Amino acid sequence: MTRAARLAMISLLVGLCVLALKLVAWRVTGSLAILSDALESIVNIGTAAMALWAVRVAARPPDAEHPFGHHKAEILSATAEGVLIVLAAVFILDAVRTGLAEPAMPQATWTGLGLVAVAAALNAGWALVLIRRGQALRAPALVADGRHLLADVVTSAGVVAGVAAARATGWWWLDPLIAACVAFYILWAGWRVIRASASGLLDESLSEAEQAALHRIIAAQGDGAVEAHDIRTRHAGPARFVEFHLVVPGAMRVEDAHGICDRIEAGIREEMPGARVLIHVEPEHKAHETGALVL
Predict the structure, then answer these.
(1) CATH number of the domain that 160 lies in?
(2) Which GO biological process categories is it annotated with (predicted)?
């Protein structure tokens, strides 16, 4: 099992523990806001399960049907997570509608609120681990899962404050109001996850910093070539794809041109481990007058 898969498996276990804590807290308090928080945790379990599937599929080597690999499985998973987050918000808003029609004052016991606080602390610690390790492993599914958990932490804190305020003031409507705020915050978090995933699905180019590093490497390792043009990049989950045309003197031997390509590829892979590099060698009469990286 890969490191990413192990992290996803732990996320699933953490999600089950957090859900159990929140369900007990809801039974103790009868709070609609805490119920909404528990509903979001059910989504956390679903997203953790999808992240586990995604990192396992993405780790598969290329095959005849998927010659470029299975990296986009993680992007699909992150997109599905965003959709589930939005659905959770819809369910919470439906519960708010019911709560407004049948008002009830929650029982703010220290036990119930303490359980929610423990669940929030558990989520916060694990979310930071997921984001840090997910970025290091270039695993979008894990990063999306971590950001979702951070959103859950914020909502849990608001829920605890809202339930306590409702009991202290006697304003029963604070409970469904906080639940509605949780729902809208979740909607925003879900939209962020979906938007971030869209860049991978649409083959967005590498970041400006990565492209600058790429140009610097080509210039440093391309000694003997004339220029590089039509430099194109894209990313798919943890994978980076780079392709460009390398113009060399027409009299250069194929072996020498191949040596330049080897140097450039080695430099790129040192900067971007695992990058897939495709270089098309051309004679100097194919040089571009504008828009090329002159070597």
Answers:
(1) 1.20.1510.10
(2) intracellular zinc ion homeostasis
The mean pLDDT value of the chain amounts to: 81
Same structural domain, 90 and 57: yes
- What gap in Å lies between CA 20 and CA 36, rounded to an integer? 14
Backbone angles phi, psi at 102, to 5 degrees: -125, 75
- Split into its structural domains, the chain has a count of 2
Phi-psi region of 232 (alpha: psi -120 to 50; beta: other; left: phi over 0): beta
253-266 per-position pLDDT tens digit: 999 999 999 999 99
DSSP 8-state class, residue 226: -
Report in angstroms the alpha-carbon separations of 146 from 90, 151, 267: 21, 9, 32
The answer to whether residues 74 and 171 belong to one domain is: yes
Determine the distance from the C-alpha atom of residue 141 to the mean position of all C-alpha atoms in its chain, rounded to a whole number.
Answer: 5
Question: Are residues 173 and 228 both part of a single domain?
Answer: no
pLDDT digits (tens, 9 = 90+) for 167-215: 777 777 777 777 787 778 778 877 777 777 776 667 778 888 889 999 9
Residues 182 and 41 in one domain: yes
Q: Report the relative pairing of strands 227-236 and 293-294 from DSSP bridges.
A: antiparallel
Nearest in space to 241 (alpha carbons), one of 72, 55, 64, 53: 72
Query: Among the three residues 163, 179, 201, which one is the final residue of a domain in this structure?
Result: 201
Rounded distance between C-alpha atoms, residue 156 and residue 173, angstroms: 18
226: domain CATH number?
Answer: 3.30.70.1350
Cα distance between the two ends of the chain: 44
Tell me the pTM: 0.56
Q: What percent of the chain has pLDDT over 90?
A: 20
- State the residue range of the domain holding 212: 208-294
Per-residue confidence (pLDDT) for residue 221, from 0 to 100: 93
Same domain membership, residue 213 and residue 108? no
